[in-house]
Design brief:
Elements lengths: L2 E13 L7 H10 L2 E4 L5 E13 L4 E5 L6 H8 L7 E7 L2 E3 L13 H11 L4 H15 L14 H12 L6 E5 L7 H16 L3 E5 L3 H7 L2 E6 L2 E6 L1 H8 L2
Parallel strand pairs: 4-8, 4-9, 6-7, 7-8
Antiparallel strand pairs: 1-3, 1-5, 2-3, 9-10
Length: 246
């Protein structure tokens, strides 16, 4: 069963060469990001998350709201087991799928077809499933004969359509997303949203970071508002959004 429990979780990001940074830049970071601190050895760090306490149960769709630097992406990376808390306990049960960076692992010198196998392998999708789904991936991505051309010959839209088609083959229990994906023209975006909705239906827990009030109120059962690495409000999407979007 999918389940998330975070207790007093803190995440510190080291700031290298920080002694050469100007006071002006330091003050700007204090205004836009997490809290800046210093260890006993003089190493500076930014506290990206502080004292996060959170439980997420099956069938919950969680939205993350907050300004840039509030800690949304860092929290997603903790949930994806990319970042380990420097303090506190993170208990995350269930298979995890991430749509944070859908182009990760794409080799521009390899063909589209070869990249389908490469990206699928990174996602842990068995080869027999990839072979079975190959024709539908090619059809969905609308690449045609370009599927056997190097990805470096693709336009940005073609590249993103290929990455999106492969990335949405997953069937995780916990799905992590950073903003709603926007790929291709309006017609393709509609098809992409339909494909995403099917993926979400197969998912027990969804956590998505977004600046879109419409998306959060339409797709989420609960919204967390983060500021400077802390949760300042956790509740019904309409209630949280009405406080945030003033």
């Amino acid at each position: 069963m999918a389940f998330v429990e975070l207790r007093d979780v803190c995440v510190d990001i080291p700031v290298f060469n920080s002694r050469n940074r100007s006071i002006k830049k330091t003050v700007m970071n204090l205004a836009t990001g997490g809290k800046i601190g210093s260890e006993a050895n003089g190493q500076n760090y930014v506290r990206a998350l502080e004292d996060i306490n959170l439980e997420i149960f099956p069938n919950e769709k969680i939205g993350l709201l907050g300004h840039n630097g509030a800690g949304k992406s860092t929290l997603l990376r903790v949930l994806g087991k990319i970042y380990k808390p420097c303090r506190g306990v993170a208990r995350i049960e269930g298979s995890i799928g991430s749509l944070i960076n859908i182009s990760l692992g794409i080799d521009t010198e390899a063909t589209g077809r070869e990249n389908i196998f490469l990206r699928a392998a990174l996602l842990g999708i068995p080869m027999e499933i990839v072979k079975k789904e190959m024709d539908s991936i090619i059809e969905f991505s609308q690449l045609g004969e370009f599927i056997d051309m190097p990805v470096r010959t693709y336009s940005t839209g073609m590249h993103m359509r290929l990455a999106f088609a492969v990335s949405t083959m997953i069937s995780p229990q916990i799905l992590l997303m950073d903003e709603w994906l926007s790929v291709g023209d309006q017609e393709f975006q509609l098809r992409a949203e339909q494909r995403l909705n099917k993926l979400i239906e197969r998912t027990s827990i969804l956590v998505i970071a977004s600046h879109s009030r419409r998306l959060l109120e339409r797709c989420c059962s609960r919204v967390l508002w983060l500021e400077h690495g802390r949760i300042v409000m956790d509740g019904n999407p309409s209630e949280v959004c009405s406080k945030y979007f003033i």
